[in-house]
Amino acid sequence: MYIQEPEYNKEFNEPEEVLNLSTNHWIKRKEKLYNRLLCEGYKYARDLTHYLEDIPPIDLDEYGTIYPLADFYYPALIPPLSILARRGDICGRCLITMSSIIEGGMSLFTIKRNRKTSLDNLIEMNYSSLTALLEMCWDSNKAREWRSVILMKFLHHPNLISSKYSPNALYDVFIKTNVLEPEHILILARAIY
Questions:
Q1: Checking DSSP bridges between strand 17-20 and strand 76-78, what pairing results, if any?
Q2: Across residues 159-168, what is the average pLDDT?
Q3: Which neighbouring-strand residues pair with 25?
Q4: In a shared domain, residues 102 and 112
Q5: What's this model's pTM, rounded to 2 decimal places?
Q6: What's the pLDDT band for 27 if we cut at 50, 70, 90?
Q7: pLDDT in tens, 55-109
Q8: How far, in Å, CA of 130 to CA of 56, rounded?
Q9: In this structure, is the dihedral angle defined by the CA atoms of residues 59, 47, 43 and 103, taken in order, positive or negative?
Q10: Which of 31-35, 36-40, 154-158 has the lowest mean pLDDT?
Q11: Among 40, 74, 106, where does a domain finish?
């Protein structure tokens, strides 16, 4: 049986304003700007601490404990990975890193407005720490699909020097042996793009 939640609980549970990390301004959740940012790939985080670097509490013996992340218990809109990669000021201001965002749940394989994944956009930007980000989700199904597509595109590329082996046979060997690591697949992806 479903019981409707009272209005006063809804107001208490849902914050009225959200911090936009890219501008460092608070915006109202019921306005057009909030909805537009969500459509542009921003991610709503009810509690920003889930996406921050892990900083342990500081024990002060008889004086108690200091929790450095206590100032970040508020809702926020996290920009897409491509914006975070370009703007280091966001990462410095909020103790946020690309790896902590991915650990928090943002995917490298989310399709953006330009019909490319976040990973493809980061490859085109020549983001430097992409290998480490890819290693974090290397065993996921989406990563397997992505590396399978990259390998197939590379082996069937028209500019590839013709070999005596068929591309399909090479593909089977590479996939079954699982010999290619993230840095190898990234090199192949950069060669294709």
A1: parallel
A2: 64
A3: 20
A4: no
A5: 0.69
A6: very high
A7: 666 777 667 676 665 566 778 888 888 888 888 888 777 777 888 888 878 888 8
A8: 26
A9: positive
A10: 154-158
A11: 106
Tokens 């399978």: give the residue. Answer: 148
Domain count, the chain: 2
Q: What is the token pair recorded at 89?
A: 């000021």
Q: What angle do CA 88, 92, 96 make, to 5 degrees?
A: 95
Q: Are 77 and 88 in contact (CB under 8 A)?
A: no
Q: Are residues 180 and 120 in the same domain?
A: yes
